[in-house]
Design a protein that fits this description.
This protein is mainly alpha-helical and 71 residues long. It has 2 helices and no strands. The protein has one domain. Helix content is 72%, strand content 0%.
Length: 71
Amino acid sequence: MLNKKNILGIIQDHQDQIEVIESELQRAKHLDLDIPDLTIVARKELSYLYENKARFEMQARAWGLVKEESE
């Protein structure tokens, strides 16, 4: 369950997963590996992670756990 104690950890976990997936997609591209079904799955997972990370960051800002980016 999402709460003030774990939200920053969840945000970091999402960022870590995003970095791993993006790295693997780049590696596959560099190796000329084209597996459309896997690429689609990876991109859907990235979309899910980015959307949730943005929502969690917004909630963390609302709770005052992180500062606004412009501050």
